[in-house]
Amino acid sequence: MAPRLIITGSTGYIGARLAAMARERGFEVVELGRRPGTTWRIGDEPLASDLEGAVAIVHLAHSWATAPDAAEEENFNISGTVKLAEAARAAGVPRFVFSSSTSSRQEALNIYGRTKFRIEQHLAASSAAPIVRIARIGLVYGGPRTAMYGLMAKLAALSPILPMIGLSREVQPIHLDEVAAGLLALATEENPPRQTFVLAQEKPISFAGWLRILRHSQGKGNLHFIPIPLSAALFACHMTKLLPLIPTVDPERVLGLAGAAPMESGESLRLLKLNPADPLTVLAEEFGQTDDEQSRSEAQALLRYLGIRPTPIQLHRLCEGLRREGLSPLRLSPALIRHPGLLALFEPPANRTKHRLARALYLADLASEPERHPGRKTGFFNATLTIAGDLLLFPLRTLLAGRYR
């Protein structure tokens, strides 16, 4: 019979990978949280029948709905976690793994870090303490580009010059798969010699160095920084919620970075038999694996920009042409791929034939030509509109065209 593992927060960045890895290793996974058919939410009293027979509970769920100044008994993250852990022990579950963070400190600048610290303290003082294992997780990267990792990858690729805070702060990256493996080890290890483990790279790196790794892994050039004060960064977070086409940044993440400090992880990694890989090597491989998908999406956007509804033959022809000419991938932004009409802002003047985007558009025109049917001739009015549009866009094109040269 397969060992039964209960996971909360299984729809999240870490939770989804943990659930998949557990199934690959032969576990029967029970997902409490947002999955259809489940009624439990953090803060609820779990049914004993839902917990019985489990080898462990891995608690990843975190509610962002609690007010920052809520009393501890009203904070679902604190009271709900303790309630779940105590119910697990009462049901005979031998291990309760709590997902914490390396930002867990009493004096943490962000609410998230202070809340995680308070939960750790309450768990240690609860009747569930004998079955509790705490995993303080570092800066997680890899896999799907979501959560904090996705945001940092987008920011690093956005521009060669990046305003940023906390550049000298030290961070401890760890791959998503390594985190999932560490959590599974905590969920199955019978008698660990300690209660708190740190899942993070043993040797910290500066945040500036981490962003440069993210940029180089995506095939971009050097990254230069403009140091900015914390107050300005928090104001910029507010502005990202108002401005289109740029990633929204939560002030909690900025405060977490501003207060970042490394934790000793070497002993934890050895006990859990984890040997974190070099992030630069792993990311170069992961981003390389997605280049084909990126190239196909870009080819489709180029053809749509030219007013062509792409056929499979045209897409294949254009992808091959772009690859042969060393133009694949162009690294178009997700906004341009979703809305190809915006390419009008970046299209270079006609005389700049060596421009990468100009060459790519020329290949797109050639790729569609064999199947193209002659249409009506452009009328005087449409031609006038086209010329007027080109004249109006010329200053913007001159300013922005360098992005994809």
Automatic annotation (TrEMBL):
Concerning Pfam families, the annotation shows: Epimerase
What is the superkingdom listed in this entry's lineage?
A: Bacteria
Specify the NAD-dependent epimerase/dehydratase domain's residue ranges: 6-197
> Which residue windows are coiled coil?
none
Enumerate the PANTHER family for this protein.
BIFUNCTIONAL POLYMYXIN RESISTANCE PROTEIN ARNA
Q: Mind telling me what this protein is named?
A: Epimerase
What organism is recorded for this protein? Rhizobium chutanense
Q: Species lineage, top-down?
A: Bacteria, Pseudomonadati, Pseudomonadota, Alphaproteobacteria, Hyphomicrobiales
